[in-house]
Amino acid sequence: MFEGLSEKLTGIFDALTKRGVLSDEDVNNALREVRRALLEADVALDVVRSFTDKVRDRAIGANVVKSVTPGQMVIKIVNDVLIDTLGADADPINLNAAAPVGIMMVGLQGAGKTTTAAKIAKRLRDREKRKVLMASLDVKRPAAQEQLAVLGRQIGIETLPIVAGQTPVQIARRAEEAARLQGFDVIILDTAGRTHIDEPLMAEMAEIKAVSNPHEILLVADSLTGQDAVNLAKNFNERVGITGIVLTRVDGDGRGGAALSMRAVTGKPIKLIGTGEKVDDLEEFHPQRIANRILGMGDIVSLVEKAAQNIDAEKAQRIAEKMRKGKFDLDDLSEQLAQVEKIGGLGGIMGMLPGMAKMKDQIAAANLDDRVIKRQRAIISSMTRDERRHPDVLKASRKKRIAAGSGTKVEDVNRLLKQHRQMADMMKAMGGANKRGPLGKMAQMFGMGAGMPSPEEMAEMQKQMGGQMPTMPKLPDAPPAGAFGPKVGTSVMPGLPGLGSKGPGLPGLGGFNPFGKKK
Prior knowledge:
This protein is an alpha/beta fold. It folds into three domains: 3-86, SRP54, nucleotide-binding domain (Four Helix Bundle (Hemerythrin (Met), subunit A)); 101-285, Rossmann fold, CATH 3.40.50; 301-464, Signal recognition particle, SRP54 subunit, M-domain (434 Repressor (Amino-terminal Domain), Orthogonal Bundle). It is built from 22 helices and eight strands. The chain starts with a helix and ends in a 55-residue tail after the last helix. 49% of the residues are buried.
């Protein structure tokens, strides 16, 4: 969602960092471009004015540290103001109340309230170990209550039985009583929406709030809303009193203005963001990490956390010894590819790496998509067990059979085998590396063993990869030289050996080289 804004801002800052000294005119010219970039990203005008005024007040006359350039100082100031605008700290859903804790979902029709309610319920059950009851109060939209019941069955979350003819207020009372009698920890009330804000909608929301007295009132808003997001958030906050915001469709092509505008206008935190259509595609909103993504610094912490949540630790332990002994076979490679898919695919990984905004044109020219991984796994699946374990037996006739079985070409099979040899050598080297070092810890996260890196170790990873650390409570006086991403040809993380024409390519892509010619 923030790609367009990120590309524009990093371009502006590139011009600043090349100058040894900045005048007031340079700062004003840069802020003019920043203002234009924010307006094009659908950020509300009042928010844009406030943002640029804060940056100007801090930038003009600021003391510049000797070790950095004035341009880098401006970048650091913009980063600080961006974090202030988005909210200084993450503010997840608050469950500190007497059970059952009520969570009321409000918003316009089509914003994704029902799906988001199911996502939150599953998240609270899996991560917080809470017993959750979902109840649909939408009696206006056809089959709305049945939709929530179907989602509940799919994810194993109980829903309030449907009783025809009841009003939303009556359903809310019945849901609260059922949750209390049956020992539920959390009750999620999915209210009705309209295609626009009107008085009957607001009156109904206020009445439901008075009856159910929810602990959290979450406004679910489509990130594609644009400038109208300000009016939406303001109206719901004035009439109902929201406690937080959930942004949906963050994975779409929205311009990112809704996130900046809604938080600044209402003063309410963005608690969660929906990153896809799957029921697990829901993340906590971390202002510092989002600010780093917008400024092209990447988000290594979220990437490592996602890997920790999705990678099977026991399976990683089983293959760790094989890797250390250099016995990395094609079954292991297939497993590595599956892990890449679990943590968001190539697009998800690339979006969290520092400097990817600068490489947008190169990535687009490479036609890089997750179908490459599926083709590579198809090739491996077309092999016999003996061939997967002993790739050396693969001669010309066998390669032809494998290519025919997987719908690919012999050249693709050869490319995969070459990539496997390169990864086997790399895994063997990483297996003998110092496990106490930060790269050793990162290697563990991607199949070389188990264990979550400490915050200090993740900070060291980010430094080695050329970006500021999102989780640090306060940024240093300026990003270090090269803070906006690796040069082409630089290795950015274990399992991603290199992005340049000299690197072996992305993991498991059979030598597929996104920024160079195929070998």
